[in-house]
Description:
This protein is α/β, with parallel strands linked by helices. It has helices at 2-5, 10-25, 29-34, 50-56, 85-100, 116-125, 139-148, 173-187, 202-218, 241-253, 267-277, 292-296, 312-324, 353-367, and strands at 70-74, 103-107, 130-134, 153-157, 166-171, 192-199, 223-230, 258-262, 284-289, 304-310, 331-335, 342-344. It has 14 helices and 12 strands. It has a 6-stranded parallel beta sheet, with helices on both faces. The longest helix is centred in the middle third of the chain and has 17 residues, at 202-218. The N and C termini lie far apart (86 Å).
Amino acid sequence: MRKKLSSWRLLLALLAVFALVAAACGDDDDDTATDDDTTETTAAPDEGDDDDEGTTETTEGGEEPAGDIRVGMVYDIGGRGDQSFNDAAALGLDQAAEELGVETEDLEPTAGGENREELLRLLAEEGFDLVIGVGFAFEEAVLSASADFPDTTFAIVDAAPEGDNIEGLVFAEEQGSFLVGAAAALTSQTGNIGFVGGVEIPLIQKFQAGYEAGARAVNPDIEIQVSYITQPPDFAGFTDPARGKEVAASMFQGGADVVYHAAGGSGNGVFEAASEAGAPGEVWAIGVDSDQYLTVGEPLNQYILTSMLKRVDVAVFETIKAFTEGDTEGGVRVFDLSVDGVGFATSGDFLPADVVTQLEDLKAQIVAGEIEVPTAP
């Protein structure tokens, strides 16, 4: 107020003095607010937007907030809540939002997945810096969209198309499946186990190949029943629990006491079939992608011997983290046993300690190159 006193008329000056005296008799805080010499964080009346600078320019080191990076994700059919593949990707996205402070948005395609490319393009048009397609079915859509949005980095799970702004995130599913195949053979009392695939395509055949190889490494004479829910181009086999239950029930009736599924949301039907085939410990199911003992809930999870962990969450999080650190180039990232990109779960403690020890030994042999796991049945 003193800075303006010389320009005011005498009457206003007298009124101001009166106001100061009244304030001194009342609330001392008013003196602090009106005295320009008592605080450096209150902007002077003629200093424009300094208040905004005082509150927004105080981030440590003056670094740009991580939230300025925007990451969009488009799930495969089934979206969040499939308790398997998509949920694993969602976990990695949520972790990035929480730990890295990036802004995220996730979308789900139609039941037939016809609008995959449309959703990728929508995210790119809205200015998302990194756009991730969850599943091999996005390959053509990613190739097309990335060509029209060269300043956007695209990533795709389970495929590795070539492009300067495309990152392929691929896994050694056969290696993780080898371990749960060995677990099945070591646990089976009947010498008869099963494999339920969602759709018979090369990617899912990798799961089958590893599972069969692991089981036969333990028991060369083991019987393995194999069935796929659908054949391409029908991909409903990943989202049909009723059909998954029917296929698995047939295997249990045929003598199998352990059944592994690589069928996405249809796997819930496999768990239901196990629960109706016998008591926990008499028959088992094996989950896939995420630790399904933790996601399915009781009582079905009491039938889940283990799960083949395909760490889509790790792949998504590490890709986003690398992007925030400046890695925006295309390329291929491989997630195998050597980087814990795949593995097996021990939740529920259903695997005996000696079985876990044998699986860890097999894992070490695979990592060392002493065991080569096939990728085709």
